[in-house]
């Protein structure tokens, strides 16, 4: 099996939505196709990947550094013992001559590329990606369904409490149990009213998570903590700056409910520091590292080694991003679940067209690879933008 071409493009996911920190009016993602010479059903195997939302496309890093290193590598050095593409070897080649630390846009670029390589490998192996992961890393055990929750409740221009309630009611009508809304983009008093409005329609705090998107200083974080403690929420997410571990630790001492964070940490080293210094509590808190922003599934395998070494359960990990990669990884690696984007970031957010959500859990696909082909709008968009036939 040989890589014959790697294509990358930038794609728009612009929309009117905003969280407490950014608007998505100019948001883009990188999309990647890894074209191979392996023929399955009369066609070359092509792996697809894309970066997750929130960090913009990274075409320069892909074009000038990561992709040339793979194309210049000895093709045999990129294969496993069965002659399939070895995503770990490909990642190593792509990231050669990169200094440690500074995990940022490079991690986003690699996240898109790594997803495409894993998709190609699973397709060549004839297995759904979740199944391949279970075979290789979980003793063949995979979860049949995955806990999912919709990332929603954004601030839109002119969006009132009725519209927010309708949005949340809609998610539960679609089969979700836990829903999530943004906070920190309005004054505390207004956010409390928004939370109370949503609680009226979702059945209680155990079905509602709130997300501050790293907005709060310590004083604001603690004011919100006091205000929301009585609601007994599912989680309180990304309270302060992603790298302010002391702030997170202080809040965790004073806020009794679960805290979630990690979507803006891009490496196993950063995750280890969060677990060392962030005050995260293994009995209740949640980690949201997003593989499609943090060097990909390959890096996440190292993340899970850190998780195991530090005595955490993999079930406390629910990746950010609402993409099919996280869904596959949750099922095949025994994670706690995956975010879902039924309403935003189209066509990249969301799962296969025939994916069923019931009682807050999603079903998996049974075709080889990541399942991109089963999301028709996404597949057509990728083929078009990457100029494939
Ligand atoms: Mg978040």
From TrEMBL:
Site feature: Increases basicity of active site His: 290
Keywords: Magnesium, Metal-binding
Site feature (Transition state stabilizer) residues: 53, 180, 339
SUPFAM superfamilies: Enolase C-terminal domain-like, Enolase N-terminal domain-like
Binding site for substrate: 19, 53, 99, 154, 180, 237, 263, 320
Chain ranges of the Mandelate racemase/muconate lactonizing enzyme C-terminal domain: 161-258
CDD domains hit by this protein: MR_like_1
InterPro entries named among the record's database cross-references: D-tartrate_dehydratase, DgoD-like, Enolase-like_C_sf, Enolase-like_N, Enolase_C-like, Mandelate_racemase_C, Mandelate_racemase_N_dom
Single GO term (MF): D(-)-tartrate dehydratase activity
Known cofactor(s): Mg(2+)
Keyword Magnesium (UniProt): yes
Alphabetical list of SMART domains matching this protein: MR_MLE
Protein's name according to its UniProt entry: L-alanine-DL-glutamate epimerase-like enolase superfamily enzyme
Pfam families: MR_MLE_C (PF13378), MR_MLE_N (PF02746)
Cofactor: how and how many bound: Binds 1 Mg(2+) ion per subunit.
């Amino acid at each position: 099996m040989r890589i014959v071409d790697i294509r990358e493009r930038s794609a728009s996911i612009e929309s009117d939505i905003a969280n407490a920190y950014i608007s998505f009016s100019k948001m883009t993602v990188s999309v990647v196709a890894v074209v191979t010479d392996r023929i399955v059903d009369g066609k070359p195997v092509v792996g697809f990947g894309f970066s997750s939302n929130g960090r913009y496309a990274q075409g320069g890093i892909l074009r000038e550094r990561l992709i040339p290193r793979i194309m210049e590598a000895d093709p045999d050095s990129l294969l496993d013992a069965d002659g399939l593409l070895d995503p770990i070897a490909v990642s190593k080649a792509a990231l050669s001559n990169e200094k440690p630390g500074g995990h940022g846009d490079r991690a986003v670029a690699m996240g898109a590329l790594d997803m495409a390589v894993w998709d190609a490998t699973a397709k060549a192996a004839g297995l759904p990606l979740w199944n391949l992961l279970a075979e290789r890393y979980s003793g063949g055990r995979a979860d049949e369904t995955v806990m999912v929750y919709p990332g929603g409740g954004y601030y839109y221009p002119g969006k009132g409490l009725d519209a927010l309630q309708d949005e949340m009611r809609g998610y539960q009508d679609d089969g979700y149990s836990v829903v999530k809304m943004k906070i920190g983009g309005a004054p505390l008093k207004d956010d409390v009213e928004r939370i109370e409005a949503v609680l009226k329609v979702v059945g209680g705090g155990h079905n509602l998570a709130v997300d501050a998107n790293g907005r709060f200083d310590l004083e604001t974080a603690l004011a919100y903590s006091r205000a929301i403690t009585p609601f007994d929420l599912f989680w309180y997410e990304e309270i302060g700056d992603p790298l302010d571990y002391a702030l997170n630790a202080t809040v965790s001492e004073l806020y009794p409910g679960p805290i979630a964070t990690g979507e803006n940490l891009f490496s196993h080293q950063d995750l280890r520091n969060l677990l060392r210094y962030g005050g995260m509590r293994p009995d209740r808190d949640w980690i949201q590292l997003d593989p499609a922003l943090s060097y990909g599934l390959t890096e996440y395998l190292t993340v899970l080694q850190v998780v195991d070494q530090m005595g955490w359960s993999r079930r406390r990990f629910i990746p950010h991003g609402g993409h099919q990669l996280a869904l596959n990884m949750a099922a095949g690696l025994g994670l706690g679940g995956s975010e879902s984007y039924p309403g935003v970031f189209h066509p990249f957010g969301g799962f296969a067209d025939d994916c069923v959500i019931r009682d807050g859990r999603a079903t998996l696909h049974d075709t080889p690879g990541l399942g991109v082909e089963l999301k028709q709008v996404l597949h057509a968009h990728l083929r078009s933008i990457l100029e494939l036939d």
